[in-house]
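Lecture notes, continued. The same structure-token format from the folding unit now serves as the input rather than the output. Read the line below as a description of shape only.
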């Protein structure tokens, strides 16, 4: 049942908003895993299956407004480290994904992951939320090609007079105004309006800009239909992936998704207030079990690990508070097993606007950190800045754990460190060493 003041319409709009913020994974994940020798069309089908399965389970079972889909970053590890670095076949790599899912499941069944979340200090929880906010804002700016590569300074801003930059900023301003005016579905309207504004680029004006973006026109229509490809389903080499030399790969898969998931749940809970009476993320155990099953399922159907998506913050900001948001998003994934060409209509500058705006709302918990207490402020600061600077949730939160434990030790306050957090700090050091 929904609260009387809450409407199903709000949840559906929130689900659509979340889907529009993260649908890029349907194209990006196959593009990355294809580099590992996997058929693009088959990975696309697997990506849709994992996204739909994970999101529907999150909505129906865990009743949380959080989308689950193959994780970014871990798919790059799958291709460039597991397959090209360690020399696994993609079938063996899928097997390691499956086993990491089994480990997740065991950790969730025995409530180990819940104990880890409960051991995280409140200051680090607030820092994770802010770090995620900066991270998704950075991803949004990057996907919109507003923040670009600069050999001299690592990053820089695109030319202000670039038509794409101007269109992105116009869409950002319009969407921000809609949010301020409390227009229902503001983010959806913002994405659609920006798409319309981007249509002339490469057609009527700004040809060079579109080419520099990597396309001839920013808004493309490549057709309606493509058949799904199930050739990767059941291809995981489950027994062959249990070699002793592959243990580091399973460990990294496990550690990365474990802390990416924990970071996401904690960050979204802090930013949105979706917490239980004890201050932990709502329906935490069922959410963690969903995360586990999504990874196990991903290995079986032909994709890298599934995980909770930080872009779910978009739907939460739109008012999503129940599982109906995740169910809506999950159902929206399914048609794109057949209609994936339609995704080319919405350019990345349109979907990126949602990430930038929502990022700004996620830094609110910064005010809850005691910045005058160095042993809390320094680990919080490292967590906040290293999540976006290293492009990794797991690395950012690992440094937060380690620095928190070491500073408490150095200041003679080791008794304030939860034993589970101390153990996790040691494992974090091992993870960073690998």
């Amino acid at each position: 049942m929904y609260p009387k003041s809450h409407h199903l319409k709000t949840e559906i709009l929130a689900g659509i908003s979340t889907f529009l913020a993260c649908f890029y994974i349907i194209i990006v994940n196959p593009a990355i895993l294809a580099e590992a020798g996997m058929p693009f069309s088959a990975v696309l089908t697997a990506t849709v299956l994992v996204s739909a399965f994970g999101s529907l389970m999150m909505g129906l079972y865990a009743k949380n407004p959080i989308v689950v889909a193959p994780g970014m970053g871990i798919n790059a590890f799958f291709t460039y480290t597991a397959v090209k670095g360690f020399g696994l076949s993609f079938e063996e790599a899928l097997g390691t994904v499956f086993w990491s899912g089994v480990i997740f499941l065991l950790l969730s069944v025995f409530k180990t992951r819940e104990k880890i979340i409960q051991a995280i200090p409140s200051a680090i929880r607030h820092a994770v939320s802010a770090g995620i906010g900066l991270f998704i804002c950075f991803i949004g700016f990057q996907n919109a090609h507003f923040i670009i590569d600069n050999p001299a300074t690592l990053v820089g801003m695109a030319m202000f007079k670039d038509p794409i930059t101007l269109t992105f900023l116009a869409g950002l301003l319009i969407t921000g105004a809609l949010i301020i005016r409390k227009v229902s579905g503001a983010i959806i309207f913002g994405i659609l309006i920006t798409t319309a504004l981007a249509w002339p680029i490469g057609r009527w004006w700004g040809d060079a800009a579109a080419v520099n973006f990597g396309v001839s026109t920013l808004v493309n229509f490549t057709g309606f239909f493509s058949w799904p490809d199930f050739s990767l389903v059941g291809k995981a080499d489950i027994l062959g992936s249990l070699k002793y030399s592959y243990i580091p790969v399973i460990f990294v898969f496990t550690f990365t998704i474990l802390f990416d998931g924990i970071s996401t749940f904690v960050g979204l809970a802090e930013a949105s207030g979706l917490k239980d009476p004890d201050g932990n993320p709502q329906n935490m155990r069922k959410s963690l079990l969903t995360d586990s099953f999504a990874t196990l399922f991903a290995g079986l159907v032909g994709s890298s690990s599934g995980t909770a998506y930080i872009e779910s913050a978009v739907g939460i900001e739109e008012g999503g508070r129940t599982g109906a948001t995740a169910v809506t998003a999950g159902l929206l994934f399914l048609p794109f097993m057949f209609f994936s060409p339609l995704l080319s209509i919405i350019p990345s500058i349109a979907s990126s606007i949602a990430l930038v705006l929502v990022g700004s709302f996620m830094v609110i918990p910064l005010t809850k950190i005691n910045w005058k207490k160095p042993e809390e402020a320094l680990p919080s600061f490292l967590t906040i800045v290293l999540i976006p600077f290293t492009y990794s949730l797991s690395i950012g939160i690992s440094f937060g754990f380690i620095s928190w434990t070491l500073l408490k030790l150095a200041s003679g306050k080791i008794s304030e460190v939860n034993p589970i957090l101390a153990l996790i700090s040691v494992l974090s050091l091992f993870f960073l060493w690998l």
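Point for the exam: The mean pLDDT is 86.
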